[in-house]
């Protein structure tokens, strides 16, 4: 629709290059015809391993024109995590983006194909709509990966109806084709992808950044007359840490949308940068609901009053929970226990009967069932368990509180504790690893920490600390590398031999509170160093 309405309107601005809607559509057509010539067809899956770029966008759109599902691979991944992500999606091909290959066919091994060479020969004509006539709303549009208890990133089914539903959220801003969106978030994440699709749906101009830069952010916003941008909490904190500039208020931003903007910096951010409206939302890649609020209530991600709950066909509920199991607590009748205003609860969201059989993860039925709570309030009901804790205030506004279970959030990414533990225990002198996130004052999310036990009750040597550092750098994405290490004398286990985290999470990394040996990741020395009482206050003031 956007192409037919305004074909010559600027669709994308990237590194000062302008691409019209017609150009983007023609490149997408070339991708579709190219894919068809390679024998790819409706129902197939292809992996896309590419950083933010116009090529990412028209490659994604081109595959959709044939009804091909696109697996969005996180470009921070490498080694086992990368191979698992591609294999688990059952992709028939992987498209590698600019800067990673970019060679002509003559310089590539025989089992590689130069996508650039093929694009030069591909025709920009549209493929017939009949090719995708069998696509249904509940079919998978793409896979976006999330961390999970299986240890590796898990491909989540993102159905076409879900993409379309989220595209309409921006209409809460009364968005028009005259708006200019600025996106610095990775397109392979749900936040960046939904932002892109929302802009294309409305017919906006989208300013795309390859990677977020706090130094260049407001320069870009002012230069391109940006009116709306998407954020995550960490992005806002980075911007606040920059020195004041005249550009802070010389922009045309009328609204921003995102999540993770905590109450402690909300007002500072909105006041300093003169942002009229902030739409904070709460969602999850594999989730089935969306919360948001337009009241400019600092820190709030939505509202859930008793009146709203009665009107909802598939209600959202906050219930009491068991910290160790991440499961709702049950009363004597076996029912979940709703919280009261002023309390924290785990979020449950009612499952639509029309979508109850749709898989969340590309995994076994048992794996998908782990996220479903049944017979929560009445016999036969089903709720999706977000595993997230929200605080409900006296006016029924909601505030994100924490994550429980086997993931935590750091630098805008969900970190799988199981994945990190598995990587650490690949090291021959580490017997076991209990991984969790710890709170660091002034930082969003939780920093990674690993409580490890060693064989023969030994102590870590300088050489071994270097080995751990290098192994993690090689095998883990940067955001998942543990920042702190703790050497335990013995594993902390439950009676059923499950790892216990609650006490060691509370103890954190303060050397005055922890008697075990503690270590800190020092990127300048490329190793872990002892975390002493002198170093502790320095770490608290650093940006980690």
What can you see in these coordinates?
- With 544 residues, this protein is α/β, with parallel strands linked by helices.
- It has three domains: 2-211, Rossmann fold, CATH 3.40.50.980; 304-403, Roll (Luciferase, domain 3), CATH 2.30.38; 407-541, ANL, C-terminal domain (GMP Synthetase, Chain A, domain 3, 2-Layer Sandwich), CATH 3.30.300.
- The protein has 16 helices and 28 strands.
- The strands form six sheets. It has an eight-stranded mixed β-sheet with strand order 2-1-9-8-10-11-12-13.
- A hairpin with a 4-residue loop joins strand 16 and strand 17 (327-328).
- The chain is globular and about 70 Å long.
- The mean pLDDT is 89.
Which short descriptors sum up this protein?
6-stranded antiparallel β-sheet; Luciferase, domain 3; 28 strands; Rossmann fold; 26% helix; GMP Synthetase, Chain A, domain 3; 544 residues; 8-stranded mixed β-sheet; alpha/beta; 16 helices; AMP-bd_C_sf; long-chain fatty acid-CoA ligase activity
Strand share of the residues? Answer: 25-35%
Q: Quick one: overall form?
A: globular
Poorly predicted ranges (pLDDT <50, ≥5 residues)? none
Give the strand line-up of the largest sheet: 2-1-9-8-10-11-12-13
Based on secondary structure, the structural category is: alpha/beta
């Amino acid at each position: 629709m956007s192409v037919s309405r305004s074909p010559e309107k600027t669709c994308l601005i990237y590194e000062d290059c302008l691409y019209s809607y017609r150009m983007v559509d023609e490149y997408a057509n070339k991708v579709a015809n190219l894919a068809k010539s390679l024998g790819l067809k409706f129902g197939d899956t292809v992996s896309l391993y590419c950083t933010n770029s116009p090529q990412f966008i028209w490659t994604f759109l081109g595959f959709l024109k044939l009804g091909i599902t696109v697996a969005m691979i996180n470009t921070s991944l490498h080694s086992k995590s990368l191979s698992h992500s591609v294999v688990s999606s059952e992709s028939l091909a992987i498209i590698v983006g600019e800067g990673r290959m970019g060679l002509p066919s003559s310089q590539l091994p025989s089992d590689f194909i130069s996508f650039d060479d093929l694009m030069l020969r591909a025709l920009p004509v549209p493929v017939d709509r009949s090719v995708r006539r069998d696509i249904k709303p509940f079919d998978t549009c793409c896979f976006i990966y999330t961390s999970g208890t299986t240890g590796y990133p898990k491909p989540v089914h993102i159905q076409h109806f879900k993409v379309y539903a989220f595209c309409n959220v921006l209409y809460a801003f009364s968005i028009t084709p005259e708006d200019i969106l600025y996106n610095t978030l990775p397109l392979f994440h749900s936040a960046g992808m939904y932002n892109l699709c929302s802009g294309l749906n409305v017919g906006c101009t989208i300013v795309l950044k390859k990677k977020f830069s706090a130094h260049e952010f407001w320069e870009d916003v002012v230069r391109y007359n940006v009116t709306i941008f998407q954020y995550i909490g960490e992005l806002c904190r980075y911007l606040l840490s920059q020195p004041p500039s005249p550009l802070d208020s010389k922009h045309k931003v009328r609204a921003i949308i995102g999540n993770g903007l905590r109450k402690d910096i909300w007002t500072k951010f909105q006041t300093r940068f003169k942002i009229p409206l902030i739409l904070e939302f709460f969602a999850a890649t594999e989730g089935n609901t969306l919360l948001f609020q337009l009241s400019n209530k600092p820190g709030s991600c939505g509202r859930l009053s008793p009146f709203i709950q009665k009107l909802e066909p598939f209600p959202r509920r906050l219930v009491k929970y068991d910290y160790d199991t991440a499961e709702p607590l049950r009363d004597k009748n076996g029912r979940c226990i709703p919280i009261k205003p002023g309390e924290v609860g785990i979020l449950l969201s009612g499952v639509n009967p029309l979508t109850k059989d749709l898989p969340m993860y590309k995994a076994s039925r048992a794996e998908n069932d782990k996220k479903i709570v049944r017979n929560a309030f009445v016999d036969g009901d089903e709720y999706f368990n977000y595993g997230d804790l929200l605080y409900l205030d006296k006016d029924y506004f909601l505030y994100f509180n924490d994550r429980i279970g086997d993931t935590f959030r750091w630098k805008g990414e969900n970190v799988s504790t199981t994945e990190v533990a598995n990587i650490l225990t690949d090291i021959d002198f580490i017997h076991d690893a209990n991984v969790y996130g710890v709170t660091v004052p002034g930082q969003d999310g939780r920093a990674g920490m690993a409580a490890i036990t060693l064989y023969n009750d030994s102590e870590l040597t300088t050489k071994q600390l270097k080995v751990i550092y290098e192994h993690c750098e090689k095998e883990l994405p940067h955001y998942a590398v543990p920042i702190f290490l703790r050497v335990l004398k013995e594993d902390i286990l439950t009676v059923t031999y499950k790892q216990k985290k609650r006490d060691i999470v509370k103890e954190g990394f303060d050397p005055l509170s922890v008697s075990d040996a503690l270590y800190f990741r020092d990127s300048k020395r490329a190793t872990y160093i002892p975390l002493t009482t002198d170093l502790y206050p320095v770490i608290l003031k650093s940006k980690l």
